[in-house]
Amino acid sequence: MTFRQLAALAVGIALGVCAGAAAAANADEPLRPLPERLGLDHRKVELGSLLFVDKRLSADGTIACSSCHDFANGGADPRPRSIGIHGAASAVNAPSVFNSGLNFRELWNGSAPSLEAFVTGVVQNPKVFGSKWSDVVLKISRDPDLDARFAALYGDGVTRDNIVDALATYTRSLVTPSRFDRYLRGDTRAITAEEAQGYERFKSYGCIACHQGVNVGGNMYQKFGVMGDYFRDHGHDTPADQGRYAVTGRDSDRHVFKVPSLRNVALTAPYFHDGSAPTLEAAVGVMFRYQLGRTAPPADMALIVQFLKTLTGERQPELAKAAPGKPAPSAVASAAEAAGRSAQ
């Protein structure tokens, strides 16, 4: 083969790869990659990262946001029920805080319309932080470092709304781009052939009907138990199991929940609002039985699990480790970088 023929072959291969990548990127996919840039104020991200680990937000100084959102567990609580001040057990498992800024509502029952509303409420919740906002503002304002940070960022310094804004901004920085995001952007080699088959099974079996969009969920409500009575079969039907009904009082909303995001799902066991599924494989089985009303060959189930693992962020966020009143330069720098970096 001549040099010219080799060159022509190389160009043909390159064009073929580019065409394949473009096809993958431009296909009418029900999933979307994470935004490449977040456009957040890095100073607010830095401040929020410190507040996220600050136990002074709780009435007894024992609970921080990070207490129930474990960064080693994909930003979720590894306990079936989250624990607040004085050992008070929550009625539900705390879902992942990662990518939560992309949800259309917050909390399992969707009662918080935004991250700001969620932060405002959780600080006052007697089973979580149990605080009065006036007390929180006073404690934070007495910290020289935090007081100076607030004064530099906000004209009115430390206030409830400014604490909420900093925490919400930080939470929005906790995005976790994955291999699958690279695949959606056209990098066909970002996932394996088996993982790609798992994605096709995920779509063909109907999982995609509820888990779609940029967050692979988090953008709609759905009844838990479309094709079977999950709560009867599991022998419980608590107020927390009522889902949206507790918010709206409409019987049609009974057992209806916000569909959770599946990003980082391989890291966030146990699963569901009640923490009843200990493994990802068990959770997929429950979904097939109660949401799809069917079974699948073990090989197909295994392929779907393989696909779900591609949604794990290639770079997981790191917690700030500052003691009260002292900045944590390395963690703060990492958080600030997250605010403006490209999600690739």
Structure report:
- Strands 1-2 form a two-stranded antiparallel ribbon.
- Helices cover 42% and strands 2% of the residues.
- The chain folds into 2 domains: 28-35 and 177-309, Cytochrome Bc1 Complex, Chain D, domain 2, CATH 1.10.760; 42-175 and 323-343, Cytochrome Bc1 Complex, Chain D, domain 2, CATH 1.10.760.10.
- The protein has helices at residues 3-26, 42-52, 65-68, 115-124, 133-141, 144-153, 160-172, 179-184, 193-204, 230-234, 245-248, 280-292, 298-309, 329-340, and strands at 221-223, 256-258.
- Helix 2 crosses helix 14 (329-340), helix 9 (193-204) crosses helix 13 and helix 12 crosses helix 13.
- By secondary structure, it is mostly helical.
- Residues 1-26 and 323-333 have low confidence and may be disordered.
Corresponding CATH architecture of the largest domain: Orthogonal Bundle
Kindly name the structural category. mainly alpha
- Give a count of the beta strands, DSSP E runs of length 2 or more: 2
Strand order of the largest sheet: 1-2
